[in-house]
Amino acid sequence: xxxxxxxxxxxxxxxxxxxxxxxxxxxxxxxxxxxxxxxxxxxxxxxxxxxxxxxxxxxxxxxxxxxxxxxxxxxxxxxxxxxxxxxxxxxxxxxxxxxxxxxxxxxxxxxxxxxxxxxxxxxxxxxxxxxxxxxxxxxxxxxxxxxxxxxxxxxxxxxxxxxxxxxxxxxxxxxxxxxxxxxxxxxxxxxxxxxxxxxxxxxxxxxxxxxxxxxxxxxxxxxxxxxxxxxxxxxxxxxxxxxxxxxxxxxxxxxxx
Length: 257
Known about the structure:
Distance between the termini: 36 Å
Largest sheet: 6 strands, mixed
Strand order of the largest sheet: 6-9-10-3-11-12
Order of helices and strands: EEEHEEHEHEEHHEHEHEEHEE
Strand content: 25-35%
Helix content: 25-40%
């Protein structure tokens, strides 16, 4: 694992009116590493990710990308840096095929016409680079794909544009056992390509199996950021999620709810 984080969030605060949602939150994401972001509902995970994605500009704190402090005011700023988020709804158009979905809003043209050949080729290359073998044709409509295949298309769309950071929001939430295994393997392949991968998940088995690091949020604070090792257990992670601490790991002082 690289010793230098590609994305670093430091002392970030975010309020919505009188509600203080993020409290001095720190997070580091490293190239070639899967960092799981876990926590109970309302812990601040979504707000943190949307702050990184430029949907919710931060109130204070710093975001550093590839060693330089950056300002992310909107999603275009995030995309320009190479940060992509795959949300739980996947944001795919079911009536369009895979190629059309991957290039939606970023279509390639030649002499004023759509360059279908190049777009098809780049789609095939992207899927091949992720070792995707479950999709028969890049011209299949998304409506004909399984849940796991749709998740694959959404991830391929995120990495098509040379993304450096890809954050996945509950990628296996609605999938069966076999499809979950396929997506988990795809998550690991993203890291093997040198991408800094963020994984939001409530499935502790997936977190331990797929992640290199786990960042645990509790009531808007970062309770722990630990490496996943053989000693990390479901029980420890659940303790951190529910109380913000587990033994000598986590927040030691009382947190006002």
